[in-house]
Structures are given as C-alpha cells and as structure tokens.
Amino acid sequence: MSVLSLFTEETIFNPLKVRSKKQLLVKLSDLAAVKTGLKSSDIFQALIDREKLGSTALGHGVAIPHLSVKDCPSVSVFLAILDKPISFDAIDGQPIDVVVFLLAPEDKNGLHLRTMSKISRLLRDEDFCLRLRGAGDPAATLAVLFDREEQNKSFKLRA
C-alpha cells in the first residue's frame, strides 16, 4: 500500500480557513472524529498534549501533527492547505499553510512511525509543496498527490 493512497477527496481540505493554531487543532479534531468515531474533544486534548512536547511544524510552512490513540480503528491522514498561513511555533519561525494530520492506533506504533517518515520526506520537497499550495481544491490536490506517486514509487508502506 502507498502512503499516498491514504488520502481521498474526503480527507483533503483545500482551502481550509482557520486563523490560529488552536482553531486549526479544533478543526482537525472535528474532522478526525467524523472519520474515526472517536470523540473530538479527546482528539483535541491529545493534540494539545502532543504540541506541548514540541511543535510538530517541520519548517518551510509545513506541519505534521500526529497521534497514536487508543481505540483508533485505523491509520487516518488528513491534508489541509490553509487559505492563509498561521503561526504554529515552527523552529524556523515561519507560519505554516500545509498541514498533514496523522492519526494512528496506539498498537500500530511501527506503522505510525513509517507513515510519518514517508509523509515527512515527501513534504520536505519544496517544489511539491508549491504544487499542493497551488492546487485550489481537493480534487486537484489529490491529482498532485497521485502524480507524485507515479514519479516516485518509494512511498509504499509495509503493514
């Protein structure tokens, strides 16, 4: 399975309108709750607790908030391209506008880490991120992801 196959038009939000880190985390929690059946408030609190350990912003306008959660049914990823960059306590001090939220079952830590590693490597490509930012809607964003997958077969995951 390819890590990029985890994305669907229903898990891509482009553009997403939020004005703060907290508002973004609330929105991601709500979206994840709908897909997973978990409580939004529990996801939000886990995200807040994770961010207290250190910002999940990679720099260059990209963040990958991620969690392993008890009772999570499967690995889920959500991609948001923000309509305007927001402060996210990034190490480079830059605001973020590309966000991938990864939510995984607590008992699948290895899969969680492999998925995060592949997504992180993908999002370090500034040209690719520019294409995501310019996509404009979920369908076009998904097309950018699939085009990237065709170019590079190294996004395969082992169970």
Automatic annotation (TrEMBL):
Pfam families: PTS_EIIA_2. Residues 5-148 form the PTS EIIA type-2 domain. It comes from the Bacteria. The keyword ATP-binding does not apply. CDD domains: PTS_IIA_fru. One of its GO terms (molecular function) is protein kinase activator activity. The keyword Iron does not apply. Keywords: Sugar transport, Transport. This is PTS sugar transporter subunit IIA. The lineage of its organism: Bacteria, Pseudomonadati, Pseudomonadota, Alphaproteobacteria, Kordiimonadales.
